[in-house]
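@channel sequence for tomorrow's demo:
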Amino acid sequence: VPTAQQRDVFPRLDRGGRGHLPLVRLGLPARLAQVVEHLVVNTTDGIVWEADAQTFTFTFVSQKAEEILGFPIAEWYTPGFWIAHMHPDDRAWVPAQCASCVRRLEPHSFEYRFIARDGRVAWLRDQVAVVQEQGEPRWLRGILIYISADKQAAEEHQRVTQSYQMLFREMLNG
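structure tokens (generated this afternoon):
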């Protein structure tokens, strides 16, 4: 389990002193820049995250994770958490697709189902960037966006459209 310092996203944004936080480059003092970036990460309407590119084990998860999916942040750092809570029908293709993109160092986005702590099925859009070190994938950084309402609206639209099409066919054949 990562320490509190390892869970803090900001040192990872400046790995090994090879750069500065974006807001530091704009002239803000480092601590103020960290506070501002922390507020941005934790008020974004999605789950901002970072994971090891080889193991898919989370190294950072924003506070929105608990609000959106119900799991305490500490649980997200457990190896295998992501796949273990994925919908069974998505467990084979999602990690495989992600791993394929990671090997090619390609950013990727996909939608899948995740089982929330309360047992509901949550649709997520996962937008992922691959961070490389010396030409090898090292970190994955992304945002999980909760899209269940969009999926439900699309399904309802499809259902209504099909009902109207059936009604129209019956009227023509009638």
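heads up for whoever presents: The CA atoms of residues 87 and 114 lie 5 Å apart.
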